Amino acid sequence: MAVERSPRADTGPRQDKGDAPSARPPRRPLSWAWVGVAPFFLFAILFLFLPSFSIFLRSFESLDHTFTFQNILDIFQKSDIRNAYKLSLQVSAVTAIGGAFFGFLLAYAVCMGGMPKSARSFLLTFSGVASNFAGVPLAFAFVATMGNAGLVTRIIENLTGFDIHAGGFTIYNFWGLSIVYMYFQFPLMVLIMAPALDGLRREWREACENLGGTTFHYWRYVALPILMPTLLGTSILLFGNAFGAYATAYAFTGSFLNLVPIVIGAQIQGDVLYNPGLGNAMALGMIVIMSLSMLIYMWSQRRAARWVR
Amino acid sequence: MAFLDINHASKTFADSAAVQDFDLHIEKGELVSFLGPSGCGKTTTLRMVAGFEVPTSGKIVLNGQDITDKAPNQRDVGMVFQAYALFPNMTVGNNIGFGLKIAKKPKEEIAERVTAMLGLIQMPELGDRYPFQLSGGQQQRVALARALAISPQVLLLDEPLSALDAKIRVELRYEIRRIQQQLKITTIYVTHDQEEALTLSDRVVVMSAGKIEQIGSPFDIYNYPSTAFVASFVGTLNQMRCRVVDAGSGKLALGDQQFKTNAPIKAGAADALVMLRPEELHMGVREGDNSLTGKVESVAFLGSVVRVHLKLGESVVTLDALNERKLVLPKVGENLTVSFPPHGCWVMG
Amino acid sequence: MRRFPIWSWVWFLIGLSYFFIPLISTFEFSLRMIKGRYTLEAYRVAFQDPRFYQSFGYSLLWAVVTIIISLLLVVPTAYWVQLKLPKARPYVEFITLMPFVVPAVVLTFGLVRLYGRPPLILTTTPAALIVGYVVLSLPYMYRSVDSGLRAVDIRTLTEAAQSLGAGWGTILKDVIFPNLRVALLSGIFLTFAIVMGEFTFAALMGWPAFGPYIEEIGAMRAYTPQAVSVMSFLITWGSIMLIQWVGRGARGQQVQLGGAR
After folding, report:
1. Between C219 and C105, whose confidence is greater?
2. With the C-alpha atoms ordered C159, C162, C168, C172, is the resulting torsion angle positive or negative?
3. Pairing of the two strands B257-260 and B251-254
4. CA gap A89, C144 in Å, rounded
5. Is 50 exceeded by the pLDDT of residue C67?
6. CB spacing of A221 vs B77 below 8 angstroms
7. Which CA distances in Å does C170 have to A33, A73, C72, C165, C180?
8. Full set of structural domains in chain A with CATH
9. What is the structure's pLDDT at A104?
10. I need a labelling partner for B252 at 20 to 30 A (CA). Which of A67, A299, B233, C220 fits?
11. A210 interaction partners in chain B (CB closer than 8 Å)
12. What is the mean pLDDT of each run of 10 residues along chain B (349 residues)?
């Protein structure tokens, strides 16, 4: 009695998502397996964690090497330190919001705004370049644009006879620096938002229309809520990005603007206000702020990933 | 004029005609399937009814109203997508109530309707879950409830079960039909799975390459296919090229064996393509039926059906026999005599 | 039937202007060394400065060293995590986020304090600088290699190779590296661009790298700094172009966040 057997389809190898624990139990004791990642961890401990920890510890060290909270308190009490934080927070907030807003509009324009595909790849490429073109050369580029002999300055003067620098107007201030920062802020937003916008499935829009919704309903009830974690997270990323910026600020406004990274930099180079404990406290303050930003960003990533599976 | 008329609709994209001269009249409360292989135009036609594609020519009339140029959010149709398309940021309850919320219905009415819908799809406690917490089958049920919540005149389903596991597919298939019949809602169901189409539909529209091949009841499509495409697409089909012995009396020959058919044969034809369904063949000799003998090539036991491949002359023929406990399975390589009634086959071409 | 997307074009053109006006201005400015006409004099002067070559070569050398160290640290780790130790993944990814939390200024501060005195004095050698560069490049290098590994499902490939009898040497040579080529090259080019443009570590620790050189001449001269900025931009642009070219057809666009801010 010959019965032909039809092969049962194999369910195939289980696809791990990569962060699920290994399906196979390790053959050797767990301790050996960690050897492979030891150099990496060692490097991180030596050159990331230890320095950070040292900063943390020495924040509580006073000039005569005793334990004190005074350094931390000084951050809030000493007006020039407080102002440094305030200024840094302001610049970061302004460029984060501006960069997020403008970057989102740009990403929307090329992803869903009815523009040709070439516009999109063009924008994404240049965003990749611009978000990396920060620091000293960027500062000089803006000097050549808006400075005393800058191209834009001259064009405006030729066209309107108006010398924008006449009345003591200068770009080397809060707003000038913000404009410079925006150069690498909004491309970053574009780079992160473009894939997020792509993730808005066409069917959601169609389902919304099918149920009677207009474009307004779609954005209000579906698209923006879905995008919100990414929008928020990326804005925070931009915030942290600006807060930690040193090179651009130093090259553009020198020590004129009292920003936290500038002050810390001055401390490293042995400045007037030689109180290492205070310097450490300021550095610690920066770490705290950046950590908060990072936590919010990670939370938002998780939120976004959960919905758009 | 029927409830939903698709009058000679066509859709052409850049260089290809996705749908050509699609003409169909659907009665109220009917479930009609669009069945065909990928690319045959069935989804495009559905999307024309939904309003996501605008016909290049032709009209769509729903309940007397011409909706051809109406925006998708102004038609009275409910659509269920292949990929569920549930809004991930809303709970099940809010998804279902979304259409009503947009129509600015009062809160209590929305809540009542959502509860009713949840009961209809038999998921009464899952109103506060989010789509990512549900299985594929559950998500699709919610999508169905969402489309029905707005009490549309027509329900459109675009291959709703293709993304699901086989077992869930069968369960859900019956659910959908049950709900459709309970609500008596006019429905179009697009699928490439003929079993689905045959099980669910009042009528089936078989499509190929943008054109309608045949419209009919499942029984008619299966047993009286009007084109070769329909005959071979729906179900398994034996096609035997036979020599015509005598066209008038329906005598044909396969190799050196003769048999008779009731189907008309073109006068003067030298040969004919004879179509025969596997279940019309029986093992052994039967009184009054044709009988042919061939060599067994393979035997597959599929559970309720035993499928035998038999070499008859130049052709290999498939025979499906219902399983019985006392059945003796034929052996590969042995000779087997099979029989079929003269009215069981037909001639094409 | 579609409305012309006027607003999309408006934003797009504004965005493009924002990108290009500074670049055009810099280039235009760099041509104005000699009054009255456009000339490449600024570039000539830049190329004549011996310190240009010194600092450029200096940065180039350390860029190569950074790349090597970074690769040696990251590739085995990424591979290990993917294949043998998925449990370590959250820790490794946390580490790659740290450079964002501890920006260059702060890290310099910590490094100088910690390694500027016995027992381990690093700051008198460029080692401290390289350490900074490696930290800076770690996130991108790791992310690049990691997504490269994931994209080709390296575990299944390794198992398939092993079942066909391949030893580790063959697996590395014929299975892993060819599939990682794009990811590695992306990481390398980006690290290169980052190191060449880096300012903070070098300036604060007092090393004669390319970044501080540009800043110095910016403080002292006119026109030449803009010429060098143009060159710096071309390096960045070239690196990104190379990354895109190498990765053409590969899945998934990487978000390349740069280093020096």
Report:
1. C105
2. negative
3. antiparallel
4. 31
5. yes
6. no
7. 22, 60, 19, 10, 15
8. 48-305 (1.10.3720.10)
9. 93
10. B233
11. 50-51, 72-73, 77-79, 147
12. 88 88 93 93 93 92 91 90 90 93 92 93 90 92 94 94 90 92 95 92 94 94 90 89 85 86 83 90 88 92 93 89 90 92 85
Q: Which residue has the higher pLDDT, A279 or A5?
A: A279
> In total, how many domains does chain C have?
1
Find, in chain C, the residue whose alpha carbon is nearest to that of A39. C73
The pLDDT of residue C218 is: 83
The tokens for B257 are: 């064996």
DSSP letters spanning C230-242: HHHHHHHHHHHHH
Cβ partners under 8 Å of residue C6, min gap 6:
none
User: H or E stretch including B252?
Assistant: strand B251-254
Q: Higher model confidence: residue A278 or residue A146?
A: A146
Helix segments in chain A, DSSP class H: 30-33, 38-44, 50-58, 70-77, 79-112, 117-132, 136-146, 151-160, 174-198, 202-210, 215-217, 224-243, 247-253, 260-268, 276-307
Where does residue B210 rank: exposed (0-12), middle (13-18), buried (19+ CB within 10 A)? buried
Rounded distance between C-alpha atoms, residue A127 and residue C6, angstroms: 22
pLDDT digits (tens, 9 = 90+) for B39-85: 899 999 999 999 999 999 999 999 999 999 888 988 889 999 998 89
Interaxial angle between packed helices A151-160 and A136-146, expressed in degrees from 0 to 180 and rounded to the nearest 10: 10
For the entire predicted model, the pTM comes to 0.81
Mutate to test the interface with B, among A201, A202, A208, A211 (most CBs of B within 10 A): A211
- pLDDT for C34 equals 78
Domain assignment present for residue C25? The answer is no
First to last CA, chain B: 35
CATH number for the domain that contains residue C123: 1.10.3720.10
pLDDT class of A31 with cuts at 50, 70, 90: low
Question: In chain B, what residues touch A199 (CB-CB under 8 Å)?
Answer: none
Measured distance CA(B91)–CA(B105) in Å, rounded: 18
> Residue C109: which domain range?
58-207
CA distance C166 to chain A (A): 20
Mark yes or no for CB contact A39/C76 under 8 Å: yes
Q: How many CB atoms lie within 10 A of CB A162?
A: 11
In a domain, C145, yes or no: yes
Residue C94 lies in a domain: yes
Phi, psi for residue B89 in degrees, rounded to 5: -90, 0
d(CA A203, CA B88): 12
pLDDT of C249 > 70? The answer is no
Angle formed by the axes of helices A174-198 and A79-112, nearest 10°: 40
To the nearest whole angstrom, how far is the Cα of C154 from the nearest Cα of chain A? 11
Strands B290-301, B154-158: pairing is unpaired
Q: Of A231-245, A257-271, B145-159, C54-68, where does mean pLDDT reach its minimum?
A: A257-271
| B239, β-bridge pairs | B275
Backbone dihedral angles phi then psi of residue B21, each to the nearest 5 degrees: 50, 60
Q: Give pLDDT tens digits for A215-226.
A: 999 999 999 999
Longest distance between any two alpha carbons in chain C, whole Å = 75
Q: Is the pLDDT of residue C45 over 80?
A: yes
Q: Is residue C257 one of the residues assigned to a domain?
A: no
